[in-house]
Specification:
731 residues; Beta-Lactamase; 17 strands; 58% helix; alpha+beta; disordered N terminus; five-stranded antiparallel β-sheet; 20 helices
């Protein structure tokens, strides 16, 4: 109640509430006055209805005020409106549901109770009780009727005697009164003067007799009635044989019986009145419950609207602030005035946290803008650097789509890659597809390959390299670099052929000089008339044959190197192949020992066993020739195997004099040799065989300068660990 009144005065609605209360009171009064029962209980009903009307009026005023604000919020599309609707609906349902259930139950109980009160049995019992009371009174009335007729008849018969002797008249009345159990018997005139009476009568006049009694008696009627405020029954009759004389007799009736009869009559009258008005009662009861339900509903809705306003106001401010921030205004914040007006502590904390969040966002945006500026500068710097690089560079995103190419890439590939931003690389340059597939298959961080592009009947040879950009194992992108080595390859080929031609010319020229000298000597011998010196002639011919054999050997070596067949790869046990080849050689060389320092049962590779034997033969032959040429006593060639996780290493070293440091890098080049009468193609053929097996060869002097070490390495197959003994890497 206090809450409602305070809200009325705060919102200045008391004039409207009073007017509405008065109108509602008049309406209810005019409606309820049509029911008969209201006449009996009008004061109570008026008080109750007045109170309910006042309360309803107050609630209506506050409700309409809040509803008007609510609809204004709807028109203005205020933030948080949906929440406000849900809160209002929830409070209405919470208040209305139990109220309606209780109201329906109360109406049902009330209707059942009324029907129980006014059923046929109770109505019959009440009606019969009234009949019993009436019969009791009727019996008394009939008895008094008989008494007054009997007494009047005697008095009329003896009128001459009794009228002349008043004392005798009084005595007779007294005796009759005692005999018939009457309380009194009186003879009065029309004015009320007592003409004669029994001994118990002390009044001199009977002025309280109604004139109606006299009028009816004059017409010959007998009047029998109960005296007011007493327990006496009265009978009144006119005496026909007397002049202006009326007989009045009275008799006492049990007071308790009379009170019971009167109470019963009143109760029956009220019962019948209520029975007739029970429908009115039900209507009034339902109306009261409707008013009460409306009152509770309005209170709930008013409370709901107030709570919703307390919630929606701060939430609306937060939503408005969020919309401002969403539009990019990071200078917006919830003011302290708004925060201080928030009565809910949690929402106030939320508002403060929101302001802090906006401040952090503003700081982060400034940092991002600064970082973007720096990134933009770096990008421009990178673009300027890339534009000056002679290599082609293409930046790719994590989906292998082009996002940063340089001009050199377009020039090398002779296409406009700048117009292919966002397109997959393999769509723009399909020749890179094998490189990309290899990258995705191996998942290596760096993949290198040589590719060949044929365009406009021109062959473009590129050496490519793609690097994966990662951050915490997350792929950010790729960088593809490539160089055009077409002219370089052509130059290398030209240089190689020039070198080959020079070396072949040199090697052929060396034996041609003695051949020429021997030929000239033979010509001179033939032209001379002297006898031929057979010994010198044979020496010259033998020299020519030897030099021709050297040229033939040189040509065969060159042909063998040029026509080296591709290996026929299969799974082989390389240790078995090498050991089977070395075993018969152990006793084949004089003054040289060949040993295998460690034995491993198996090392499986993909290889061609014939070419592997040829490579090992060249290396052992090279060591043997080196030891023999330098006349090393107790020459020794050692072979050592080593198994790594994914490869097998074969080390071949001797205890010769080694090679010059300046010749180490050229020792494998074709036609390079430090030996007499040697083509210089043995190690080149060995290098090609090892390359064809995806292996590697490394030649170096031993640290003690007493020999060379040749290290071969071959990749193992998937069955590389089968029946395999591992050697400690530290050896």
């Amino acid at each position: 109640m206090y809450f409602l009144i305070i809200n009325i005065f705060k919102q200045k609605l008391y004039p409207l509430s009073l007017i509405l209360s008065f109108l509602l009171l008049l309406l209810l009064h005019s409606f309820l006055r049509s029911f008969d029962f209201v006449d009996n209980y009008f004061n109570i009903y008026l008080l109750v209805l007045f109170f309910i009307t006042i309360m309803l009026s107050v609630c209506f005023c506050i409700f309409f005020k809040n509803i008007s604000v609510f609809f204004n919020d709807i028109k203005s599309k205020k933030a948080g409106l949906e929440l406000q609707k849900k809160i209002l609906f929830t409070f209405s349902i919470i208040a209305l549901t139990p109220t309606i259930i209780i109201a329906l139950f109360a109406v049902f109980i009330f209707d059942t109770t009324l029907n129980g009160w006014f059923n046929k049995k109770i109505s019959t019992a009440i009606t019969q009780s009234v009949e019993v009371a009436n019969k009791y009174l009727l019996e008394h009335q009939n008895a008094m009727r008989g008494d007054i007729l009997e007494l009047a008849n005697v008095l009329n018969v003896n009128a001459n005697i009794l009228s002349s002797d008043k004392q005798k008249f009084n005595k007779y009345l007294n005796n009759y009164t005692l005999k018939h159990d009457l309380s009194e018997a009186v003879i009065i005139d029309s004015i009320g003067n007592v003409l004669a009476s029994s001994g118990f009568v002390f009044e001199y006049t009977y002025t309280e007799i109604s004139q109606n009694y006299y009028n009816k008696s004059n017409q010959g009627e007998i009047i029998i009635a109960k005296e007011d405020d007493s327990n006496k029954m009265r009978a009144f009759l006119k005496l026909s044989q007397y002049i202006d004389a009326y007989l009045l007799i009275t008799r006492f009736v049990d007071e308790k019986v009379l009170n019971a009869i009167e109470s019963t009559s009143i109760a029956v009258s009220d019962y019948q009145s209520i029975e007739l008005d029970q429908f009115d009662f039900k209507i009034s009861f339902v109306l009261l419950f409707i008013l009460l339900t409306t009152f509770i509903l309005l209170i709930a809705m008013v409370i709901g609207l107030n709570i919703a306003n307390k919630l929606v106001g701060p939430i609306g401010s937060l939503i408005g602030a969020a919309e401002e921030v969403g539009s990019g205004n990071l200078n917006y914040k919830i003011t302290n005035q708004v925060l201080n007006n928030i009565n809910i502590n949690e929402l106030k904390i939320l508002g403060q946290a929101f302001n802090k969040m906006i401040l952090d966002l503003k700081t982060n945006r400034l940092d991002l803008e600064l970082a973007n500026d720096q990134l933009d500068k770096r990008r421009k710097f990178s673009e300027s650097v890339l534009s000056g690089v002679y290599s082609g560079v293409i930046g790719l995103d994590k989906d292998l789509k082009i996002n940063l190419p340089n001009l050199t890439a377009s020039k090398i590939l002779n296409i406009s890659i700048e117009n292919s931003y966002g397109k997959p690389l393999i769509e723009v340059v399909p020749e890179f597809s094998d490189l990309i597939k290899h990258l995705l298959k191996t998942r290596d961080d760096v993949v290198e390959d040589k590719i060949q592009i044929i365009k406009d009947d021109k062959i473009l040879n590129l050496i490519t390299r793609i690097v994966v950009q990662k951050s915490d194992d997350l792929i950010l992108g790729y960088v593809l670099t490539f160089d055009d080595i077409t002219s370089l390859i052509a130059a290398q080929k030209m240089g190689a052929w020039s070198d080959i031609a020079r070396r072949i010319a040199h090697e052929i020229k060396n034996p041609l000089t003695p051949i020429r000298l021997a030929s000239e000597r033979l010509i001179n011998l033939l032209n001379s008339n002297k006898n031929l010196d057979k010994k010198k002639f044979e020496q010259s011919l033998n020299m020519i044959n030897r030099q021709v054999d050297d040229i033939h050997h040189l040509v065969n070596e060159f042909s063998s190197f040029a026509r080296m067949p591709s290996p026929k790869l299969k799974i082989i046990n390389i240790t078995k192949v090498i050991n089977e080849y070395i075993t018969p050689l152990v006793t084949s060389f004089d003054n040289i020992t060949i040993t295998v320092d460690n034995i491993i049962p198996s090392a499986l590779i993909m290889g061609d066993d014939k070419q592997i034997r040829q490579a090992i033969s060249n290396l052992i032959k090279n060591s043997y020739e080196n030891l023999s040429m330098n006349k090393i006593k107790d020459g020794k060639v050692s072979i050592f195997y080593k198994i790594n996780k994914d490869s097998v290493s074969i080390s071949i070293h001797d205890n010769g004099t080694g090679i010059n440091s300046s010749d180490v890098s050229k020792i494998i080049d074709p036609y390079f040799t430090t030996k007499k009468n040697n083509s210089g193609l043995g190690l080149s053929i060995t290098k090609k065989i090892i390359d064809d097996h995806n292996g590697s060869i490394l030649i170096k002097n031993l640290k003690s300068d007493d020999g060379i070490d040749i290290l071969l390495k071959f990749p193992l197959t998937k069955d590389k660990y089968k029946n395999m003994s591992f050697v400690d890497d530290k050896k």
